[in-house]
Amino acid sequence: MNAAAAQDRDAGALQRALAALETVVLGKPRQVRLCLTCLLARGHLLIEDVPGVGKTTLAHALAQVLGLAWQRVQFTSDLLPADIIGVSIFDRASQQFKFRQGPIFTQLLLADEVNRASPRTQSALLEAMEERQVSVDLTTYRLAEPFFVVATQNPHEQLGTFPLPESQLDRFLMRVTLGYPDAAHERELLKTGDRRDLIPGLEPVLGPEAVIGAQQAVRAIHVSEPLLDYAQALIAGTRGRADLKLGLSPRAGQGLIRCAQAWASLAGRPAVLPEDVQAVLPAVVTHRLERRDSGRVEPSDSPAALGVAEELIKTVPVPL
């Protein structure tokens, strides 16, 4: 099969994945598309919202549809870093310590309620998410490819949660929120029951090779010089503001471009348009912007957090 035929096949599989996910998570096509965008951009995804709106259901459906090997870790206050990474155990037969791999050695890691673990345990993910490796006892272990962390978290004001530090938040390329369903879709949920019952019946439509191929195809999406100027202007618009503690970093800017490429790829376009940048901007930047007056990172669906992204879209000129 030549490269063009393989790309067409993978593009069709991605559209089937979108359709399958939308049968489980009703009325949230934009959020579902953002989730796949994050995967194609080789990032990690944070799903934040109040309990009961489908965060874990969406994460489970992603794992099933993508056809990747996956592990789920329920984050709790007593979870230890070794419970995620693994532990060295003394083998009496060989008189040596042997490393027993933890659940992070997989292709898709579902970190459920990640902010219920202590900051020490949360930090166990930092090296893995950034460098796709873990270091234990002076030995470095490479993680599988693709490696995709999907984490869910509850709002910070809820009992038993620990705020994610800025370094951890920055490892997540995108943060999405689901919100409450509209009346029509909520009525369907009330009639049909738990959507998690549909997940085992979902047919895996991708797989490791297809995911890697789709990620490589995203890198080939053209980004023009005027489009780079536009992205740079959006990033610069967050720096030096009195209401923000810090502006966006160069890493955030790189992530914005990759996500715009992935969004354009899902739409079947060979080049990034300003609309692609605008579509992904809130999910990429709002969890990285901390307001001085709040003392914490605003939820990405709050008026304060979304206001910065919306203001940038309205005020930064679009290249002609």
Low-confidence stretches: 295-303
CATH superfamily of the domain at 221-320: Magnesium chelatase subunit I, C-Terminal domain
Distance between the termini: 39 Å
Q: What characterizes the major β-sheet? A: 5 strands, parallel
CATH class of the domain at 221-320: Mainly Alpha
* Rounded average pLDDT: 87
CATH topology of the domain at 221-320: Helicase, Ruva Protein, domain 3
Helix content: 40-55%
Computed CA radius of gyration, to the nearest angstrom: 20 Å
Treating each run of at least 4 consecutive H or I residues as one helix, how many helices? 13
Q: How many strands?
A: 9
Estimate what percentage of residues fall within beta strands. 5-15%
Note the overall shape. Answer: globular
The CATH architecture category of the domain at 221-320 equals: Orthogonal Bundle
Q: Going across the major beta sheet, what is the strand order?
A: 2-5-8-1-9
Helix/strand class: alpha/beta
Sequence of secondary-structure elements: HHEHEHEEEHHEEEHEHHHHHH
List keywords for this structure.
13% strand; 320 residues; Helicase, Ruva Protein, domain 3; two-stranded antiparallel ribbon; 5-stranded parallel beta sheet; single chain
Walkthrough of the structure:
The structure is a single chain. This protein has 320 residues and is an alpha/beta fold. The chain is built from 13 helices and 9 strands. The protein has a domain at 221-320: Helicase, Ruva Protein, domain 3 (Orthogonal Bundle), CATH 1.10.8. It has helices at residues 3-24, 29-40, 55-66, 81-85, 119-122, 126-131, 166-171, 183-192, 208-219, 225-236, 250-266, 274-285, 303-315; strands at residues 45-48, 70-74, 86-91, 96-101, 108-112, 133-136, 139-142, 148-153, 174-176. The strands form 3 sheets. It has a 5-stranded parallel β-sheet. Strand 3 and strand 4 form a beta hairpin. Helix 1 runs antiparallel to helix 2 (29-40) and helix 9 packs across helix 11 (250-266). The longest helix has 22 residues, at 3-24. The model is unreliable at 295-303 (pLDDT under 50).
